[in-house]
Known about the structure:
By secondary structure, the protein is of the alpha+beta class. Helix content is about 45%, strand content about 10%.
Amino acid sequence: MTDTTDLISSKLAQAIANPIFPELDSQLRAGRHISLESLDQHAFLMDFQAELEQFYRRYHVELIRAPEGFFYLRPKASTLIARSAMSEMEMLVGKVLCYLYLSPERLAQQGIFSYDEVYEELLNLADEAKLLRAINPRSTGSDVDKAKLIEKVGGALRRLQRIGMIVRVGDQNSKKFVISEAVFRFGADVRTGDDPREAQLRLIRDGEATTPQSLEEVDEEQADENSPEFANEE
């Protein structure tokens, strides 16, 4: 029998043997983003980044450290790890979160936002009538249609929480959270000298038009080529 230590470096073996690794590996494979809020896990990835990049290449995924400092797995076409794509609503809410991250309000509110504030900001930045018609093509702007839109936004926020884009504040039923720098995966490409917040606003408004089909969950075959792909959420 071949000794596995002959096939991997001693530092990679040390990383895999670390008690932090099993849970962290499961989270990364489930599409979670690891930012500075997760101090121990982030420090672990910093210490073993090169070795873990080599480890995940065997599964045809890349361990990425973004310029903002957070880590995530990016699947290749030949990945051996299941992957999924964001729905249009999840992407739109992600873009709004990035806009809020860049806003003066984040500092004024100690970084804490609520579900209601995200919904209100979405209506402020995008066209409410278009959003309602995306949920229901025959929408008349009724309370029922608005309730469905609120439900969709809440569902998008819950998924974004599961993959590390926002971090809940308070008990498990709390609808308050802080925004992680991982939301920059939804950020606009900003040229030197441009205002990042204005660029993000343009990105939201340029992409606000949606169709009923695009608000449904999409699998990897349906994913738009420009949408971010994630390792599969459990």
